[in-house]
Specification:
The protein is of the alpha/beta class and 241 residues long. The protein contains seven helices and twelve strands. The protein has one domain: Dihydrofolate Reductase, subunit A, CATH 3.40.430.10. This is Pyrimidine reductase, riboflavin biosynthesis.
Length: 241
Amino acid sequence: MRALVPPGGLDDTSLAEAYRPPSGRFVRANFVHALDGATSVDGASAGLGSDADQRVFTVLRAWCDAVLVGHGTAAAEDYGPLEADSDVGRLRTELGRPATAPVVVVSRRASLSPGDRLAVPGTWLVTCAASDAERRTALTGAGVRVLVAGDEDVDLPAALDALAGEGIEHVLCEGGPSLFRDAVAAGVVDELCLTTAPLLTGGAHGVLGGEALPGPVRARLVQLLEEDGVLLARYALSRAA
């Protein structure tokens, strides 16, 4: 892997250093998308992933104090707690970080249920006062730390303030798009880490428009130019779908 801006090669150590966050409050978002803007294949982002994307994903999780994710994304991607005996956990230890970090689930309706993979001690649930009080009580009984921020909807700035008060200052937002949109609109995101997968998937909101393709079409990067932060790319497309 090499960096175009700034240029240079990146081994595992320099890759980790390249993503070292600043001290203090810092909210970083991480997304992978296809060339046509799609953020998932068959409902999951795993279909867009690669070895390079996984390396960066591991580094980003290694640096954070907590992973912030919407309940819909957590359910679709089958999220579980961060484990010490994992690539992320081992890298966290190498970097002098605690081996694990909590997952913070955002749900206006407190949709996390006792018995879910994430309904365990260490997980946080961020919700609002309008959510089901009995469910909040049940989740608290399961060891989930429930944070109520806002009345009818989740107040993300207030939630992040409360998390910072608990020592959770560097937050990694992993989506989904709705949560990311709300976070950007609230002005709480400091950085976006965006991976572009060399695939075309189709769909109503991308450059292809209309229905999804029968299967992703792979592309090959042949040129990448940059000026004033604008990236201009050329991709060669496979003719076989």
